[in-house]
Amino acid sequence: MSLDQSSSLKQRLKAMCWKLSVAVEAEIRRTEISLMNPLVESKSRAACGILQTYREAMMSAEASRWEQAMAEEMDSLKENETFELTTLPEDPSTSVSEPKVLEDMEQVCVDPDPGMNLADPQKQQLVCTEAQDGPSNWEEFTPELSSESGLISYRFRCPHSGAFRCTRTGLVFVVAREAGLIYRTVQWDELLLQSAGRTPAGPLFSIECPENAVWQLHLPHCETKHGQRSKSLLSVVHITDDGMEFTDTLEITDTHVVINVQHLSLFGLTWMLEMIQNLISVSGHIIESVTQFTKAVSGQVLLFLAPPNPRTQRQNLNMLLLPRNVPLDEVEAKQQNDVYIKVAATCDLIKNHSYSLHCPEAHKVQPKKAKFDLDFGPNYHPTFQIRLPINTDQVSLTIRDQRETEIWENDVDLAGPAGTEGNLPGAVQNATPEDTTSTAETLLHILDELGGKDFKTFKWHLHHQVVDDIHPIPVHQLEKAERTDVVDLMVQTYEECGAVEVTKTLLQKISRMDLVKKLPNIC
Which of 296, 277, 166, 319 is nearest to 222 (CA)? Predict the structure, then answer.
């Protein structure tokens, strides 16, 4: 055998050894995953065809077992002298022998993240540990917003590795390197959650990162400081096309739930939904013991001022009671031409407890009492509607719980930059009673734009629509009703302002947001 032939053979053996070690490692990964529960196994296989890179293995919860399994297998190969192992060339790509083998090896062995030293996962641990230290190690950013049909999406490019907090959603992203983020909220499938004994504890986020550089997520929660932030009750669900799984929680801080991530898709916070005994306390004193899902949360009070109605000389101030971790932009996008009024918003609230709103300046507050619900979208309807005289400059607002205890109060300025005319459309500011169309006529114009099928679906929803304590319109009255009849029935049943709100709600249900935008804030 010539020297050249010997050299070529050695190169082939080296390449075969290298390739075999990769195959062995892949087989070990398959074996390790098969030992996990079936749900994790199916998610892992569906997500990427088993773990594809050393980095993924080292970032997994089973990293130590991966290392042990690979070491044991290599020791076994050496002990049995299965192959003659030798040091690889410093630059295998310089060899002209068997270019196809070396090219295949490169495709198998090179990690898609060239900016990292994968043999040393300490960098990941350092960045993640610093991020968990809290806000002092976060860089805050304000993302770009885009809105279509009332749906908000957020974009931001992280300039380097580190922890970055979104000022609009409260999300914290821990990234390995420079990377782009695209994220938005999506609607929960509550039936799917209930099948697993869970209920939403925050918005459901759809998150994308083309560079696959996100190591860790911090999701904002709405737990109260005096509440129990138990890992057994509060958890993170990861939803893919194949189903859902609940990920391990690293830490629950005063503001966030921290998790490691391998693959991005849908992430959201959930609570256990079961018949458990909860002790509800205020200022450390137990006030109620219940055996149903009753949850105390850190909430927020949001105010939106509607344009005045020159014909009725009234304007509405809408109040929404929501959990703290609902993004303001998501709510504001649903309020159309209403103006957001900034106030001190923090307020502890209890699910399924009744609250009342008091305003001396109001012509009327409706409803008189309302139960607080954990609303995470997508529509965000007002909890209370305050009917005010058209030139009201200031109001005093007080929220009381079902024991008539004041839990929130605020004096609110409505005039000037944050209030009425300065922020209203010019057409509204300059309108006169003679220029306005009656509410019934406006509703009729809207219904005239519905096709036959949409109008039929609209009437079906109208029959099932429950507003406060008002019974729905009977089906026999709607079955053969024309558009003029439907308008008259809505105004008679809900009064003018209520008919407008019901129409908006039903148009959203039949996906006619184009008509919702055409429907002005009449009341």
Answer: 296
Q: Where are the beta strands (DSSP E) in 142-284?
A: 144-148, 151-158, 162-166, 172-175, 179-186, 198-208, 214-220, 234-240, 243-247, 251-252, 256-260, 266-272, 278-282
* Residue 292 scores a pLDDT above 70: no
How is the beta sheet containing 256-260 ordered, strand by strand?
138-141, 162-166, 172-175, 214-220, 256-260, 251-252
CA-CA distance, 281 to 271, in Å (whole number)?
19
- Answer positive or negative: Cα dihedral of 287, 292, 297, 299: negative
Do residues 288 and 351 make contact, with C-beta atoms less than 8 angstroms apart? no
Maximum distance among all alpha carbons in the chain? 106
Determine phi and psi for 316, rounding to 5 degrees.
Answer: -105, 135
DSSP-H helix ranges across 86-133: 99-109, 122-132
Closest by alpha carbon to 54, among 130, 129, 124, 159? 124
The least confident of 236-250, 262-276, 338-352, 402-416 is 262-276
pLDDT digits (tens, 9 = 90+) for 382-418: 999 999 998 899 999 999 999 999 999 999 999 754 4
How far is C-alpha 65 from the geometric centre of its chain's CA atoms? 33
- Count CB-CB contacts under 10 A for residue 42: 16
> Treating both helix axes as pointing N-terminal to C-terminal, what angle do 483-509 and 439-448 enclose, rounded to 10 degrees?
70
Rounded Cα–Cα distance for residues 43 and 518 (Å): 45
- Per-residue pLDDT averaged across 185-207, rounded? 93
HEC profile for 5-53?
A: HHHHHHHHHHHHHHHHHHHHHHHHHHHHHHCCCHHHHHHHHHHHCCCCC
Query: DSSP letters along 254-288, please?
Result: SSEEEEE-SS-SEEEEEEE-S---EEEEETTEEEE
Question: Can you tell me the distance from the alpha carbon of 19 to that of 230, in angstroms, rounded to the nearest whole number?
Answer: 47
Q: For residue 68, which phi and psi values (nearest 5 degrees)?
A: -65, -45
Among candidate residues 191, 276, 193, 190, the one with its CA nearest the CA of residue 237: 193
pLDDT in the model for residue 88 = 60
pTM check: above 0.85: no
d(CA 397, CA 361): 9
Give the model's pLDDT for residue 70. Answer: 78
DSSP E strands, 332-463: 339-341, 346-350, 354-358, 364-366, 370-371, 384-389, 394-400, 406-413
Mean pLDDT calculated for residue range 217-241: 81
In the block, tokens 């009729």 appear at 444
Domains of the chain in sequence order: 3-109 (no CATH), 122-272 (2.60.220), 296-434 (2.60.40.2660), 437-518 (1.10.533.10)
Distance CA 261, CA 133 (A): 18
CA dist., res. 388 & res. 494, Å (int): 19
Q: Which residue has the tokens 């010019």?
A: 426
* Per-chain mean pLDDT for the chain: 77
